Amino acid sequence: MSLSSQLSSDTTNRRRRPGEHMQDSSFDHDLQASYHHEEIHERLQGSQQLHSKQSCSPSSQNSLCPSSKCIPAHACVRRHSCEDSWEEIQSKRTIRAENEVEANKLVNNYRFGFRKWKSHVTERPFEERSEVVKELYSELNTIKPHADQYITCGNVFYVLLFGWWVSLVYFVVGALMFVTVIGIPYGKLCWKLCCYFLWPFGNTIHEIGNTLRRCCEEAPDCECSVTVEDNSPVLLPSPAEVPAPEAPERPLRTPYWHRLSTYVWLLLGYPPLVILHSLVCFISWILVFTIPVSKMNAHTLSIILLLPPEDVLISTSSHRNHKGYETRALLCCYRAANWYYYKYTVDGINVFAVNLLPLVIVALVIGYVDKENQFASSDVKFAMAISSIIPLSYYIGMGIASISAQSNFAVGAVVNATFGSITELTFYITALLRGHRATNPCLQEVVKAALTGTLLGCILFIPGICMIIGGLKHREQKFNSRSAGVSSALLFISVGGVFAPTLFSKAYGNLVCDACTNTNATSNSSGSFVCHNCHYDLKNGTLFHDHIEPLVYTVSVLLPAAYIIGLIFTLKTHSHIYNIHVGEAQVTGHHGTVVHWSRWRSLLILIIATVLMSACADLATEHIQPILNQPNISQYFIGVTVLAMVPEIPEIVNGIQFALQNNISLSLEVGSCIAVQVCMLQIPILVLFNAFCDVGFVLVFSDQHMWASIFSVILVNYIFMDGKSDYFQGTALVVVYLILLALYFFAPSPAGC
């Protein structure tokens, strides 16, 4: 069955909501390479309200019209209520996938408890990519028949940042080659390249073939120009060319490696240009959007500068009309910068994650070698260590998605449960161990602040920023209210269980203050007292050991049990809530699919990334104390912001990409899934770890953490009630999040810190 026939037959059974498929044509043309494979067809998502409770009656044999949206009468099956049928049909969606592995990844995105991942885990056929993406991966050796305007902001930026000093270096090296006399041919080449690299756009570097070389040798003073077919940079002889007979008096060329000038060039001229192009290549690659400049310099260094100088010819856009010469285009650049290079990948890895990977090595070397802080201060080491968590989190997410997409459901669930929270748990456990060894109770409070900050960020900030960006592009987005309701219910259970010991301690604990002074002048008379550093006593007496501690263990058992029940409910017994369907005609199968990371490679990368994550977390906790000692910044604020949200940056990016794709359901699930895992998995694991290795972790939070979390859960559930989102609702969530951050910023540091 073809894809078109399948879609046509599917259309006869359902009516799509027109507004769901309205796309901005210009944006789709630019971004179709990112999500062309993941077109999602929503079924009957027009109205969220259905007031009619009666079952299907004979009078409704033709159609049912809730909220003016008509559906066939056979939607109500086996005397189910019309409301249930409407909700079931509303949640159905069909996913387009290029192969079986990508289909599994897309289905896993909708499964509760599975990590949401936007990027591809398989290699996409290059011929199916858009022209925008093909240009990103071009080798800069294709001559365009009609190039765009050369004077652009990116090209001018290239001249100011690279062009002038690259040309200056070539001029100096060329003068050096002229001084040696033997290297005069290379000096001429350097001066030609000096002009080329000052403004390379629209100019082409060719390798001269036998025909043109013979012409130049027989008539050295002739002005020969080169053109090739605009759409063919390959070395091909001209059809009109008639090979000239060999002239016996013509001297034979000396082989390249038999020339003295070659070795003079490799000893004097080539080394400084290696340094030059390597530096430009590195800087332009790190800037990402100037990757064409990096490609141009790498191509020049590895190919052009190693050719005989007489085989290199530079032509401008105005000298391409002569035919009959045998040449091959080596380098032709039209734009120095391209905004869409943010999607550029290397072996399936985003270029930003590739560029940040050396930061991990630098942070580990400086952190463990420079123990005395001679080369870098503790602040710099902490910043580098905490920034290194970003690429490691990306690699862990990519590994989880790759293994889950290539495995069955059971293996995927185990991998997601094992490695899904490894980033946060590594830092929390490392901080608790270091705080226990140093008898520093502040690190325990920092861990609690980080837990609360992750909860608040995933409940408020991630959904809010996704709603804003998605709403600005799509005006209004709709999502499955039933699936969002499951996550909301689990959030209520999570917050209630996590803060139950805190509420219990407030109700039955004794308030103890360190210092109290009588405001009355006479010490013997009764009066009001001013007390400082007041807290509920948990260490003395029997309240903690006989009541609070058993409650903590009970909650730590019930929360994972509720998480497992949620998995069974959403993935087995009530999977129709999500009801993801991948059409048979849309999946080409697993055979012939090129996977970026195999299962074993993904597992190896997961293990290595976890080990590196532990080392970076150890460095971060080792050098965090100077940051915590800052008098103007609350320790609560540091934990809630930096330590909580930096590891979640890859998830934020994924959520934004889903929102731009008009798939706000996954954007909301990104934050909800992490928040539920924090409460139902991470905190019970920390309690279990403390039971076997006493590090002083007590599941009793401050009032600020408790009320901020409870208020956030209530607010986000109110926002999710109507199943719609727009930029105003997202703004409300982000503003509330910023208000809570301001509250933490001005709050005093924890007692004893």
From TrEMBL:
One of its GO terms (molecular function) is calcium:proton antiporter activity. It is a multi-pass membrane protein. Keywords: Antiport, Calcium, Calcium transport, Ion transport, Membrane, Phosphoprotein, Transmembrane, Transmembrane helix, Transport. Residues 382-498, 602-744 form the Sodium/calcium exchanger membrane region domain. Gene3D superfamilies: NCX, central ion-binding region (1.20.1420.30). Signal peptide: none annotated. Residues 153-203 form the Inner membrane component domain. Residues 1-26 are annotated as: Disordered. It is found in: Endomembrane system. Its main location: membrane. One of its GO terms (cellular component) is endomembrane system. Residues 1-11 have a biased composition (Polar residues). GO terms for biological process: intracellular calcium ion homeostasis. Pfam families: Na_Ca_ex, YccF. It comes from the Eukaryota. The chain crosses the membrane at residues 156-184, 263-288, 349-368, 380-397, 409-429, 449-472, 484-504, 551-571, 603-621, 633-654, 666-692, 704-720, 727-747. This is Cation exchanger C521.04c.
